[in-house]
Amino acid sequence: MAKTVEQTNLIRLNKYLADHGIASRRKADEMIDEGLVQVNGRTVYELGVKIDPDKDKVKVKGKLVMAKPQLVYFVFNKPKNVVTSTADPQGRPVVLDYFKKVKKRIFPVGRLDWDTEGLLLMTNDGDFANEIAHPSSKVPKTYHAKLDGIPNDEKLQKLTKGVSIVGGKVKALKVKKLSSRGSDKKAWIEITITEGKNRQVKKMFEKIGFSVVKLKRVSIGSLKLAGLKPGDYRPMTQKDLENLFK
């Protein structure tokens, strides 16, 4: 009986790392696979391994994982030409460069391409990051895309019916022209998706014959940037958290 009780305390190592603000579960799995995580002095490579959080000592890159931090959440307006990462081997600007006043160890939720700007969430809550970023959550994400031409309605409708890109078939939840923007040669399109595959919006427009020359994420769920300038951030409110799933 005592053995059964002890087993109920076990949790997956990637969840433990996510709970302690080290990284999202997916990123934690990558760190385990790369041999960066030790449990009780032994390097662990097995994905899915479970530990006892009350007894086992976990180190990441040789540093002991300390007690679970206070969870924090931020809304950030990511500028273009910034890498959505905590560090970059090429020395390019990263999103953490804008959070030097934040003492807690945070990371981005999902990603935006180097040349894409707009709404990005930052947190130290791994479960929250996984819930928002995972395709199964189907949280809608809306973008404004400037194209190198003007697609007709028939081509835009193809995006709502579905197109095949590398990684599978995807479709837009909604798509429309922004009549208040653009010119007679380049259109601005508002597109909402739920899958969030790598470079998905750009690949979708390429599929109907257009290149994206500028891209900005303007909302996640019903959460919007609310006037934040590029490079600015603010703490999320309870209402912000609720709006994510509306």
**What pattern of helices and strands is seen along the backbone?**
HEHHEEEEEEEEHEHEEEEHEEEH
Q: How many structural domains can be distinguished in the coordinates?
A: 3
- Describe the oligomeric state of these chains in a short phrase: single chain
Named CATH architecture of the largest domain: 2-Layer Sandwich
What are the low-pLDDT stretches, counting only 5+ consecutive residues below 50? 1-6
Q: Report the structural category.
A: alpha+beta
- Determine the mean pLDDT: 90
Q: CA-to-CA gap between the ends?
A: 44 Å
The biggest beta sheet, please?
A: 9 strands, mixed
Please tally the helical runs, counting DSSP H or I stretches of 4 or more residues: 7
Which term fits the overall shape? elongated
Short description:
The protein has 246 residues and is an alpha+beta fold. 22% of the residues lie in helices and 27% in strands.
